[in-house]
């Protein structure tokens, strides 16, 4: 299954009246029920101190409303709404407990735009909103793994509640950053249709392990296996003791192996382990390498900052720590290590090739507020490479100045597009408006927003506009 297995969004909103904030960790996994079909599980973890509380019957409690909307082909397929109540408390003077909630929503196979709105019902502030493109794909005649759910605890239970799955109460861990205080965590996944592919009750092997995200090497001491007999749904669970795992970016990999040692299917999930007292070993010696020539810590820090567009999110967390600490030797080792993972034999050439692209971005895409490599256009230029085609419009009637970038292939996706627009109309600050690249901002109303410089044309109840001479935007998403 090709999809992002887990995403983490920190949704923070600052309330103008009290300077308090609503803070939520949000993640999801997809599974399949043989009887009811595919579904998505969404996990929400609320910071109890940042929720507004009301008093009723001598107790204080908070309430949060969560609305889900799933779009497909620009039409609403499913809408769900839930009210979540916090734990009650006798007073609000102490630390309020955090609380966790989980929702299960059944969906047909397909591509969706998932929109989530979270509203503190006791606050006057507007809802928090986030959007994510997701893919649901479970084929009935293929052996397939579900997404991998990282959990805090898993206990056998017969109680039917929101956390119950296949006889276990699974309490999810909603962050992909495993904090220093976490000494162990487990994982849960489901394997489907093994009985159809290798035969009911046939033996097979599950191998699971932790791999370094940077170099792809197995981390010694973090490997396990279990034997299974094929059934319609096979539950896969395991646990890792991570108190001795150094700080860094990793991924859990599950391989399903036949009795002949052939890989049948596989899946993975990434995480970052915070463990500053057990630092990961970087290269021991930078002598004779291209980083030895750095003598100014600020110059090296600037070059490490240039890595943000191409670094993995978890990889960037480690880089950010280096920028804060400004330990020259550690920064050199990190910088060399970063480029060696991309070109082991010639890391210096890989860096200089990338630096040329950064210079192009800093020259052409800088704005009054941001250097070129961190502007919306520069960031995507470095992340995805230069577009195969680039359309620029400065004089289309009633539309903001805009650019359309076309990619023949990007991230194993073909014929993808990014649209940028310039609301200031005079500065070089082009913002990303819409893209059909998975993981990017997807805005089904991009064409309406692009034309909002025309006062009065937009009707929220009937979102459309009249054609006019010179209007080219209807053809932006396709090439001749």
Describe the structure.
With 480 residues, the chain is of the alpha+beta class. The chain has four domains: 1-138, Immunoglobulin-like; 140-280, Immunoglobulins (Immunoglobulin-like, Sandwich); 290-375, no CATH class; 387-475, no CATH class. 15% of the residues lie in helices and 40% in strands. The chain has seven helices and 25 strands. The chain has helices spanning 194-198, 297-305, 313-325, 328-340, 347-364, 376-384, 446-450, and strands at residues 9-14, 21-33, 37-46, 54-56, 59-61, 63-72, 75-85, 99-106, 110-120, 128-136, 144-145, 149-156, 164-165, 168-172, 177-178, 184-192, 203-212, 218-229, 233-241, 248-257, 263-273, 389-393, 402-410, 413-421, 431-435. The chain is globular. Mean pLDDT is 86; it is low at 1-20 and 455-471.
Shape assignment: globular
Low-confidence stretches: 1-20, 455-471
What's the CATH class label of the largest domain? Mainly Beta
CATH 2nd-level architecture of the largest domain: Sandwich
Largest sheet: 6 strands, antiparallel
Count of the separate structural domains: 4
* CATH topology tier name of the largest domain: Immunoglobulin-like
